[in-house]
Amino acid sequence: MMKKTKIVQSYWSKAYKNSPNNGWAFRETHYMSWALSCLQLKQFYDEVELVTDSEGANLLINKLHLPYTSCLTTLDKLNDENPAIWALGKIAAYEVQQESFIHVDGDIYIWKPFPKRIENAGIVAQNIEKNYPFGIKLLSEMRDRYFSFPFLPSAGDMCEANMGIVGGHELDFFRDYCSLVYSFLDSNRDKLETLSGGVSSINTIMEQYLMYEYAKHCKKEVEYLIPNLSSTEMYKLTLFSLLPRDVSFIHNIGSYKKKEITSDRLARLLYCAYPQYYAYINNLLRQNII
Question: Whole-angstrom Cα distance, residue 108 to residue 252?
């Protein structure tokens, strides 16, 4: 019998602490999101690995008692890195994988297993982001500032692979891709501060854009969880109200995290699905343990 896919999550403490409330409207939602994400993954997958640093292991394993089956503190090696480059935590997690995997962000919650076409694919990602104004503007700015790219970017549409989920069994591809990202970063470090959006704007280019372009460059096919998702429909990934009948996959992308209603709905969902964890997290917060 074929071994069930391993799920991986990554948590770089330094990057999370770099943004107010860890990117959410309320501090407590950060903890509740990680709890709900991990617990739902464990409903459908036997093996859920955490790749983190020592501080992250202390929070998610020792304090929150989330049921990860294994924990690597690989991300301690990023202690001297700029936390604004948050994608480095994910890149380091992909790089360390020794078997087929699917990396799932901590703001994603599933209500059924991923389709077999995703579990069995060589390379997977969430969806294609095509001609997003932010990406087009940033890429143009980087060219104007003579950023060095590892290969000639393709002409035409500006596409990125949304990596809310990413992975597969082509581990050589991911190792090469990770090396490519490090090389890209090292050759452009002196220019990062010149970006109008700040250093953090480099994340989507170095992670999503390079992933899409490198797969294309290698003539590798990427299997997308949601193959045809337009920019105007991305918001549908955040609609808790559609669970579980109409959707089985929620991804709290970008600005939606900062909405109070998102935090409220997430808290209610954790309370209904895992009341003991909801009470436990609130208790830890009251005692200032987290």
Answer: 7
Higher pLDDT, 231 or 42: 42
Task: For residue 276, give the 3-state DSSP assignment.
Answer: helix
Buried b (16+ CB within 10 A) or exposed e, 55-72: bbbebbeeebebebeebb
What are the residue ranges spanned by the domains of the chain?
6-286
Give bridge partners of residue 175 from the DSSP assignment.
none
Q: 159 and 128 in contact (C-beta within 8 Å)? A: yes
Phi, psi of 47 (to 5 degrees): -115, 115
What's the CA gap between 111 and 43, in Å, rounded?
Answer: 8
128 phi and psi angles, rounded to 5 deg: -90, 135
pLDDT in tens, 160-174: 999 999 999 999 999
Note the helical H segments in 166-244: 171-188, 202-204, 210-217
For 6-286, CATH number out of 1.10.3470, 3.40.50, 3.90.550, 1.25.40 equals 3.90.550
Q: Is residue 135 within 8 Å of residue 231, measured between CB atoms?
A: no
List Cα–Cα distances, 48 to 15, 86, 104, 243, 259, in angstroms. Answer: 22, 21, 10, 23, 29
Closest CA to 165 of 9, 4, 50: 9
